[in-house]
Amino acid sequence: MQTIRSFIAIPISPAVQKGMSLMVKRLAGERDGIKWVPSESLHLTLKFLGEVDNREVPRVCEVVRQCCDGIEPFTLRFSGVGAFPQTSKPRVVYAGVMEGGEPLVAIVSGLEKELATLRFKPEPRDYIPHLTLGRTRGGSRRGSPELQERLERNANQALGQMDVDRVQLVASFLDKAGPTYQVMDTIDLVG
Predict the structure, then answer these.
(1) Based on CB atoms within 10 Å of each CB, which residue in 84, 126, 136, 188 is the most buried?
(2) Residues 140 and 33 sit within 8 Å (Cβ to Cβ)
(3) How confident is the model at residue 139 (pLDDT cuts 50, 70, 90)?
(4) Tens-place pLDDT, residues 21-39
């Protein structure tokens, strides 16, 4: 048995990647305690699966197709930045989704329900549509006070929009330089 570290995501358009890169430059500081996601690696995660038995990948692909059936292409509009669990204790820095959240929630709800039948652990928290820009580094559990100020200053900044017409099942390979990704399947949204 071989396992593949996998997740289900929506790829980010080059224009939005560029906008997010500019925002990260506005947010990042020398000692902010955050490992920022390179713009070319940005993706909107719908469900992190963890280690998937390679023999299960076709079944997972079928579940993703089933959960996307009937979902028409839609527009995502990003605006503002924030942090989980909160701006005063940032562990994950994100760009907010201001338009297009409803189809994301519908897809994720279906994925959670259907993947549970394949023994994938359901997320304990409700899904909040967002695009992760960075996470606290290793031992650090919170970003700097300066980062908190920069987050508050950019809380309502418009960050661009993109059309969503596909969902992907992605393999993630970890190494010292960071993760690299390989698309295992693409599911087109056709409605």
Answers:
(1) 136
(2) yes
(3) low
(4) 999 999 998 888 889 999 9
Length of the chain: 191
Burial class (CB in 10 A: 0-12, 13-18, 19+), 2: exposed
Measured distance CA(159)–CA(46) in Å, rounded: 20
**Separation of CA 152 from chain center:** 21
Stated pTM of the model:
0.92
Closest to 17 in 3D by CA, of 93, 95, 83, 71: 95
CA–CA separation, 15 and 57 (whole Å): 31
Residues taking part in catalysis:
43, 130
Q: Cβ contacts of residue 22 below 8 Å, gap of 6+?
A: none
CB environment 128-142: b (16+ within 10 A), e (fewer): ebbbbbbbbeeeeeb
Report the alpha-carbon distance of residue 111 to residue 16 in Å, rounded: 25
CA neighbor of 9 nearest in space, from 91, 132, 178, 155? 132
